[in-house]
Design brief:
The chain is of the alpha/beta class and about 260 residues long. It has two domains: about 170 residues, Spore Coat Polysaccharide Biosynthesis Protein SpsA, Chain A (Alpha-Beta Complex), CATH 3.90.550; about 80 residues, no CATH class. About 45% of the residues lie in helices and about 15% in strands. It contains twelve helices and nine strands. The strands form two sheets. The chain has a seven-stranded mixed beta sheet with strand order 3-2-1-4-7-6-8, sandwiched between helices. It is globular and about 60 Å long. About 0% of the residues have low confidence.
Length: about 260
Amino acid sequence: MARRNKRIQVSVIVCAYNEQEHLGQTLTDLIKCPTAEEIVVVNDGSTDKTETLLKNFGKKIKLVSYRKNRGKGYALCQGIKAAQGTIVVFLDAHLEKLRDKHLKKLVQPIQKQEANYVLAYFKMQLVKSDLFADLTGQRAYLKALILPYLKHLKKTRLGVETYLNEIYKPRWGKIVYLNDLVHLVKYRKMPTSEVLPAYLQEILEISKTKLEMQINQHRQLMKILNPKEIKSIKAFRKKVAEIKDKEVSDLIKNSIIPYLKRITG
């Protein structure tokens, strides 16, 4: 969706993989937001009816779609390339009660030249001992500053937010809170049997990105976090107990295990 006869300032990018149940409401709410001058939706190789749903929105959105699932990092890159705005806003596909005030909170610090990027959190996310507490899918960036990183960004899959956090220094950004915006977490939108494997895959990809950028022992951790071999937290703990590298062991015990316990209840 783009306004004619006016240079687009704000492009909102939504990436979706098998989101037929919740994406429709997110986009319906988003289309009502004047701040969203352009809406780019990337269908990341969905195998359900996501693409059919998206086609029903017609010219209200700019659709980018491809058959093979390539991961969130790749999808965001395709969305950024398609976006015409000078500011790009990233939103998750499974949001409820999205309103224009939320978008304004994300983009105004950039518009007012108070920041080059903005991260939006729900206060419940911020747990200092949690390795992944600083990750959020709700973000805004000056497009020009993110373009040089697309080559690596597209390879990060679910580690995309970790990568963005590492390349952008805190002094450039601002944090805002969207307390009344509802974000549907995995256990609220997926069958119970799929929740733990999905979280393990997410942890693997996030950890891989973080460790590639911070420490050299990432191969050992990637092997430990193999979702095909770990089916329970008990099995995960057993794997951790076998680790001889103290730096990797401490990282998992102090950060990843508390995170896994919190998200799986």
